[in-house]
Amino acid sequence: xxxxxxxxxxxxxxxxxxxxxxGVLEIGGERSRGGxxxxxxxxxGACIGxxxxxxxxxxxxISVSRE
Amino acid sequence: MNSTAEKYIRKEALPFIxxxxxxxxxxxxxxxxxxxxxxxxxxxxGLVSGIGCSSWSPVYxxxxxxxxxxxxxxxxxxxxxxxxxxxxxxxxxxxxxCAGIGGNHLIHAAKRNVxxxxxxxxxxxxxxxxxxxxxxxxxxxxxxTSPLGNEEHPxxxxxxxxxxxxxxxxRASATHPIQLDKAIxxxxxxxxxxxxxxxxxxxxTAGRNIFSFKTPSEMYDWYESQVAVLKPGQTEAPDGKIGxxxxxxxxxxxxxxxxxxxxxxxxxxxx
Lengths: 67, 271
Ligand SMILES: Cc1ncc(C[n+]2csc(CCOP(=O)(O)OP(=O)(O)O)c2C)c(N)n1
Ligand code: SF4
Ligand code: SF4
Ligand code: SF4
Ligand SMILES: [Mg+2]
Prior knowledge:
A: alpha+beta; Alpha-Beta Plaits; B: alpha/beta; 8-stranded mixed β-sheet; globular; binds iron/sulfur cluster
């Protein structure tokens, strides 16, 4: 699975991290354009492609696709 | 940006005005999945909103949009539908916009059973103006205008809106995006006045005034603990929880624009 987070619009709310029941995502040290600490796929191998992270993002900026 | 949003977002209007973690953005996200699934063309739909954070929702989308006056979204939407009966009309509104200042339009639009879909984002507060009591604010809640605790009970919107004549009522929550999609999709397919009440956490204003959550995630955890997905046919959840699902659907009551069209046809044939 390819997990992409759009650094232009992410507001670092961490709702995607919360939504992922597989522990794939975590807030990291990189900042988005707006200055918010962004999530990253710490554990991409555990992703099952359920897209709950995508559905839970208020800024429509995380996307999951098949590689 | 997710692939559905890519197709419909007006990029030049970004970022969304919403604060980090605001439920309103999750509602927009869900709405885009639904219209994509239903295949609604960009010229087939008109979006209408009033004033408030929630009312900014349609402004970011590549559809015709009327961002109107506070409380007047429904009146404008009824007018739009009356002159464009073939268009899908969707209203994005807040609990203050819809049930507070716009409350009279709400009951009359429901009474007319006009074929529009209303997505009311309820965050228990006037978010945009800094946290005044809304008609949805829970009893006892502390807001800027109820510093000693709300001495009024909130509206029972389900009974109010269906009692007035709405023929579809669903309740959804930003914590449950799959059920949210379903509530919006069925509401858009329904012919008649479709009302979707969405529990939409406001981490900033409600978070600060009514609650004292430190992060959006904490607030969403609390919302999740308060709701339960209803089984088919249920309108109330067990254990005093807030029930999510389609609470009411009535396909018998005639829809306003179709009745008007029929009457016009009869009058024309008589002349
Ligand atoms: C006629 C009028 N009265 C008052 C206001 C101030 N005002 C702007 S938004 C708002 C409340 C919006 O609350 P709600 O609809 O719940 O939206 P939210 O911001 O919570 O999403 C008020 C009172 C206004 N813009 N116009
Ligand atoms: S939910 Fe969206 S905006 Fe929030 S941290 Fe995740 S990617 Fe960023
Ligand atoms: S698609 Fe599912 S499993 Fe993969 S990161 Fe998103 S929420 Fe986690
Ligand atoms: S004030 Fe509340 S409702 Fe308004 S954008 Fe911020 S979080 Fe959302
Ligand atoms: Mg509100």
